[in-house]
Design brief:
This protein is α/β, with parallel strands linked by helices. Helix content is about 40%, strand content about 25%. It has 9 helices and 14 strands. It has an 8-stranded mixed beta sheet, with helices on both faces. Helix 5 links the parallel strand 8 and strand 9. Helix 4 runs parallel beside helix 5 and helix 6 crosses helix 7. The radius of gyration is 21 Å and the shape is elongated.
């Protein structure tokens, strides 16, 4: 039976963790919780792992896969939940780097802060593998993503066919976008827009929901107020799509709602006919691939990139629609 020793380490770090030699009087202190998971048969490798937010089932699945693979491979894992807090993410990464981890694997809530983190890690020859979201232009060692542009196109094609199938004549569609720094998620909307506009639809309105359900709700509410005859809304992630479902219901709108990620709540909403489709990302495969890639780098193995210029490694997904729910996944 596998034995896992979990140690909760609480570190008190100032907001200016590495920026000052002395902490200013009255400066706020951030409590960073890093969990150490040590397998029974340790391989002598320690990897830092920090995840976007654990209230989202997509990241819960990703986190579980990273932890399971770490135990299986004998990797000691320092695990951290960013909980949407960019400074918390930076402080935790710098704390783990200071503890001389061998590699850092991260799904960042704030990609624009990745260059700072990558630079700090590379100064100590620590490779950095990003899982999803974005790199902020930083020179990471690899990034594990799904092909958001092609995925968005697939959702767009499905939306066009479903609108026709249901006899909906409206030609106006809306897009709820993730935060601007989430460049890979933003590609989903661009792919959706390409195929729907090519099919004769127009996108008169787009609003940002910054990946959160409550902000997705506010964005969709605004969109439906300005464009009450929207035939459909595509949200670049499922959390925002669920917010759009609530906004559409309140507005008395029959707009079809589409999302992206394949979260449990979104899949249930599709089964209940509240949402109409989503692109399932394989969160488990992405997490496993992130840790596997870090291990390959540490072993000195060559990495096979799907896009060598951007160091992207793609993980496949698939569409879940009204008539295509796959219980096996």
């Amino acid at each position: 039976m596998k034995k896992i020793v979990m140690i909760l380490t609480t570190l008190l770090l100032s907001i200016s963790l590495w920026g000052c030699s002395a902490e200013p009087k009255g400066a706020k202190v951030t409590e960073i919780k890093i969990e150490q998971i040590t397998p029974d048969k340790a391989a002598g490798i320690t990897v830092g792992w920090t995840v976007y937010a654990m209230d989202n089932t997509f990241f819960q699945r990703m986190d579980g896969a990273v932890r399971d693979k770490a135990v299986k491979d004998g990797i000691t894992l320092l695990a951290h939940n960013q909980n949407y807090n960019p400074q918390d993410m930076v402080n935790a990464c710098k704390s783990m780097i200071a503890q001389d981890i061998d590699a850092l694997v991260i799904s960042p809530c704030s990609p624009e802060k990745m260059p700072e983190i990558i630079e700090a890690a590379h100064e100590k020859d620590i490779p950095v593998v990003i899982v999803d979201i974005g790199d902020g232009g930083g020179d990471k060692d690899a990034i594990i993503v799904s092909d958001g542009y092609e995925g968005g196109k697939e959702v767009g094609n499905y939306a066009v066919n479903l609108l026709k199938e249901k006899g909906i004549s409206g030609k106006k569609l809306g897009i709820v976008k993730c935060e601007e720094s989430a460049v890979y998620a933003n590609q989903r909307g661009e792919g959706f827009k390409e195929v729907t506009e090519a099919a004769g639809y127009e996108i008169p309105i787009e609003e940002r929901g910054d990946s959160k359900e409550d902000l997705g709700y506010e964005a969709a509410k605004k969109m439906l107020k300005e464009e009450p005859d929207l035939a459909a809304i595509f949200a670049e992630n499922d959390m925002m799509a669920l917010g759009a479902v609530k906004a559409a219901k309140e507005a008395g709108s029959d707009a079809l709602i589409f999302g992206y990620d394949g979260n449990d709540a979104a899949v249930n909403a599709i089964v209940d006919k509240k949402m109409h489709g989503t692109m399932k990302q394989d969160a488990e495969a992405m997490g496993e691939k992130g840790l596997e890639t870090a291990e390959q780098i540490l072993r000195g193995e060559s990495i096979t990139y799907d896009n060598p210029e951007t160091k992207e490694i793609f993980v496949d997904g698939y569409l879940i629609g009204e008539d295509s729910y796959r219980a096996d996944k």
